[in-house]
């Protein structure tokens, strides 16, 4: 039997098919007619389902023993009577049946609400589960609990894309389908390691380069795509905004802009032009003063000319967003499209390569403190995750409800987060596997994963796919637990199926989803539909008007701030700047991928890449510890690489044992607090086998 569904990992959102024999998966593959997959899957698609058979799955709800002890005298009779049904799991947890775990959760949430008020409860998560679950999650926190504090992992990811794009063109989502890569004449890839993080999108880039399309890759190191780029543009850390403003200055100086488009479709051009032309950091010649990066002055001019005079696309990733000026850099990207009319048509436009299988959907569903479903204004604006953490430490937030976001591993400033999580009076987690956050939880609900349930997932090109169960599971879905707790709290919540929830979404978020029936989505499992969906879907946004209130696109100028590595280079200081990111085989906290025998292989630890040019400086050490102002990593295995520039370093963050996110502080995007995961100054401490003392380089 063959079952078609959608891949559970990245934001490419490949259609995926499973061959099932006697109820077990034999293999995963993609069908030729699959619109996103084009008949190919990356290794996580082909092998990343093996976690389903791991003995570590959380099978029944867990309740922390010390939590029972603390609350035992205050439990109502109904709960007290059933406590003898709890069974021992390990020294920390009991196992419970679902009903009792739901009753205890509801009682404790109500208790906290009564004692401290509804605003003392917050919700984080949702981007790995379906739209139905994330929709109900925000409704649960906002309506059933009465708190505005709801957020998801877009906070540490592409929130700056949402912010920057909404401020300029009114909509924070990709303007065109992935297949428009085939229609572009020139492509800029900035801050996206596409071959590792969005491999099936990268396939399209390889295809067009083979056929003669030119690409510019703007990164801080050599990545696989750099090898096929006409412009391999390696820039110093934290200079995206400067480089983007430089491209704009060249376009303005050489009058390569599209005046007709600017006049008809935009506002704020004159002010923007004057500011860019007068900005010393927007002059490409500035790089002539930055040692080792002088070549950028000419290269940036060439990129600007090609971008402006061709039908051009810009793809970007976290190398843009995870900085203090991430939102500003995204505004600068939009500015370039507005300046040249490279938007609202085929083969041109803006593609933020969003990360999680359903982070687009989870934002669309309103799991953000400042947006209701469909990006409507909420009654009250809630706290963003970093403020929720501060709120816990200040004693204002007492309970946290977490759905599939491992904040005890993947957020910055882990020393602080761990301290905060210990302060919580109540932490509820929905998870597939034990991970860092379950280590702090009072109640853990084991839930179905995407391959075991039905639901809508929205990929990075706004495409909806409906998943269906590939294997049977007795576990509850995320939304079912939320429904049952809400019911227990006294609300009339009667959804019988995920389709019931989705039909409510179609009404509440009707601007984007009114026409997206389950029926239509079932008929198009292998192609999906791009939102907004009325009768049909929408491939290209902004064709006639932008999605701002008045329909115009707005130029937004921001000056780059002199700082960091550029400052150190100009002052002639010694330094090591670290950036963090992904490798192809592991997915975020690696909780699923490390439980796939075919994936874990050689990649069982995070490897630090240092520059070959720094090998002597670090005594050719095989292992080093990194230390920043905030914390320390574990000893990390080193590979000296020709792809890394002197004074820079790269490491992945997949394994909690590496303690990478202990190195980061609270520095974050100035608008939306996305962590500055792409740049931190570190000391490199070789771990010397023969010498006991540390040597700091
Ligand atoms: N295999 C795999 N795929 C994934 C994931 C995974 O964990 N594993 N995670 C998913 C998620 S949640 C996301 S958000 C996406 C992320 O996908 P990407 O956005 O591609 O993610 P990263 O690897 O974090 O970083 C991208 C690139 O930014 C570069 N960079 C760092 N600093 C700078 C800078 O200052 N300027 C520029 N221009 N570039 C810089 C890095 O060198 C890196 O090549 O991937 C998704 N896909
Ligand atoms: N240093 C550094 N840190 C980073 C980043 C970086 O570039 N550098 N990138 C950041 C980014 S972009 C992101 S998005 C985050 C990602 O980090 P997380 O948000 O933690 O994402 P995942 O590890 O993909 O998923 C979290 C959990 O969801 C569970 N899960 C999977 N499916 C389901 C489901 O259907 N229901 C439920 N309830 N749970 C499920 C998985 O078991 C996993 O433990 O990491 C961030 N952290
Ligand atoms: S590219 Fe992403 S969606 Fe496609 S198979 Fe790989 S992990 Fe899955
Ligand atoms: Mo992400």
Structural commentary:
By secondary structure, the chain is an alpha/beta fold. It has four domains: 2-53, N-terminal domain of TfIIb, CATH 2.20.25.90; 62-157 and 357-506, Rossmann fold; 160-352, 3-Layer(aba) Sandwich (Dimethylsulfoxide Reductase, domain 2), CATH 3.40.228.10; 565-686, Barwin-like endoglucanases. Helices cover 31% and strands 17% of the residues. The strands form six sheets. An eight-stranded mixed beta sheet has the order 5-6-4-17-16-15-7-8, sandwiched between helices. A seven-stranded mixed beta sheet has the order 27-22-26-23-25-24-28, with no helix packed on it. The protein is globular, with a radius of gyration of 25 Å. The chain starts with a strand and ends in an 11-residue tail after the last strand. Bound molecules: ligand MGD (2 copies), iron/sulfur cluster and molybdenum atom.
Q: Whole-number radius of gyration?
A: 25 Å
Might you state the CATH topology name of the largest domain?
Answer: Rossmann fold
Shape: globular
Number of domains: 4
**What is the helix tally?**
24
User: Helices and strands: which structural class?
Assistant: alpha/beta
As residue ranges, the low-confidence spans are none
Mean pLDDT level = 97
Classified by CATH, the class of the largest domain is Alpha Beta
- Small molecules bound in the structure, each named once: ligand MGD, iron/sulfur cluster, molybdenum atom
Q: What is the percent of helical residues?
A: 25-40%
The CATH architecture of the largest domain can be given as: 3-Layer(aba) Sandwich
Proportion in β-strands: 15-25%
N-end to C-end Cα span: 59 Å
Main pleated-sheet profile: 8 strands, mixed
GO cellular component, one term: membrane
Domain 4Fe-4S Mo/W bis-MGD-type: 1-56
GO molecular function: 4 iron, 4 sulfur cluster binding; metal ion binding; molybdopterin cofactor binding; NADH dehydrogenase activity
Organism: Persephonella marina (strain DSM 14350 / EX-H1)
């Amino acid at each position: 039997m063959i079952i078609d569904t959608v891949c559970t990992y990245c934001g490419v959102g490949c259609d995926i098919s499973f061959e099932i024999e006697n109820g077990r998966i034999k293999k995963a593959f993609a069908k030729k007619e699959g619109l996103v997959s084009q008949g190919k899957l990356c290794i996580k698609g082909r092998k990343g389902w093996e976690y389903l058979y791991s003995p570590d799955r959380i099978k029944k709800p867990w309740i922390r023993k010390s939590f029972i002890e603390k609350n035992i005298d205050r439990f109502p009779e109904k709960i007290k009577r059933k406590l003898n049904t709890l069974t021992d799991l390990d020294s920390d947890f009991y196992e419970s049946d679902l009903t009792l775990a739901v009753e205890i959760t509801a009682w404790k949430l109500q208790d906290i609400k009564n004692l401290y008020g509804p605003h003392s409860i917050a919700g984080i998560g949702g981007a790995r589960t379906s739209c139905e679950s994330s929709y109900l999650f925000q409704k649960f926190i906002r309506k059933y609990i009465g708190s505005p504090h709801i957020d998801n992992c877009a906070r540490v990811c592409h929130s700056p894309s949402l912010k920057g794009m909404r401020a300029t063109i009114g909509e924070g989502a990709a303007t065109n389908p992935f297949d428009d890569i085939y229609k572009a004449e020139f492509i800029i890839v900035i801050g996206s390691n596409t071959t590792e993080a969005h491999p099936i999108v990268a396939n399209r880039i390889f295809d067009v380069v083979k056929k003669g399309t030119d690409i510019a890759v703007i990164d801080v190191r050599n990545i696989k795509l750099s090898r096929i780029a006409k412009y391999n543009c390696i820039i110093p850390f934290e200079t995206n905004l400067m480089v983007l403003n430089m491209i704009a200055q060249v376009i303005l100086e050489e009058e390569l802009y599209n005046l007709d488009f600017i006049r008809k479709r935009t506002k704020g051009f004159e002010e923007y032009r004057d500011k860019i032309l007068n900005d010393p950091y927007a002059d490409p010649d500035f790089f002539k003063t930055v040692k080792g990066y002088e070549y950028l002055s000419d290269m940036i001019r060439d990129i600007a000319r090609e971008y402006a005079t061709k039908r051009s696309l810009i793809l970007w990733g976290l190398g843009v967003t995870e900085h203090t000026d991430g939102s500003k850099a995204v505004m600068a990207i939009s500015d370039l499209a507005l300046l040249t009319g490279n938007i609202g048509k085929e083969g041109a436009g803006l593609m933020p390569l969003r990360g999680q299988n359903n982070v687009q959907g989870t934002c669309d569903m309103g799991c953000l403190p400042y947006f209701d479903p469909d990006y409507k204004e909420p009654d009250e604006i809630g706290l963003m995750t970093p403020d929720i953490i501060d709120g816990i430490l200040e004693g204002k937030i007492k309970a946290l409800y977490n759905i599939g976001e491992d904040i005890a591993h993947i957020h910055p400033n882990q020393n602080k987060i761990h301290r905060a999580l210990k302060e919580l009076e109540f932490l509820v987690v929905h998870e597939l596997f034990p991970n860092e956050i379950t280590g702090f939880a009072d109640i853990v609900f084991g839930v179905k994963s995407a391959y075991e349930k039905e639901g809508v997932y929205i990929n990075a090109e706004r495409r909806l796919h409906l998943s269906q169960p590939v294997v049977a599971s007795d576990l509850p879905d995320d939304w079912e637990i939320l429904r049952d707790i809400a019911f227990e709290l006294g609300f009339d919540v009667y959804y019988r199926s995920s389709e019931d929830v989705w039909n409510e979404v179609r009404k509440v978020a009707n601007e984007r989803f009114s026409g997206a029936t389950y029926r239509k989505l079932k008929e198009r499992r292998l192609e999906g539909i791009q939102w907004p969906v009325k009768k049909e879907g929408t491939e290209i946004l902004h064709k006639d008007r932008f999605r701002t209130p008045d329909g115009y696109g707005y130029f937004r100028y921001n000056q780059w701030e002199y700082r960091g590595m550029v400052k150190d280079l100009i002052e002639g200081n010694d330094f090591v700047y670290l950036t963090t990111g992904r490798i192809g085989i592991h997915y975020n906290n690696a909780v699923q991928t490390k439980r796939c025998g075919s994936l874990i292989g050689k990649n069982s630890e995070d490897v630090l890449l240092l520059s070959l040019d720094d090998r002597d400086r670090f005594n050719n050490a095989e292992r080093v510890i990194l230390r920043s102002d905030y914390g320390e990593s574990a000893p990390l295995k080193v590979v000296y690489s020709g792809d890394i520039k002197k004074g820079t370093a790269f490491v992945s963050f997949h394994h909690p044992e590496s303690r990478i996110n202990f190195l980061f502080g609270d520095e974050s995007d100035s608008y939306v607090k996305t962590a500055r995961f792409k740049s931190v100054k570190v000391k490199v401490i070789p771990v010397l086998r023969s010498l006991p003392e540390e040597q700091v380089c």
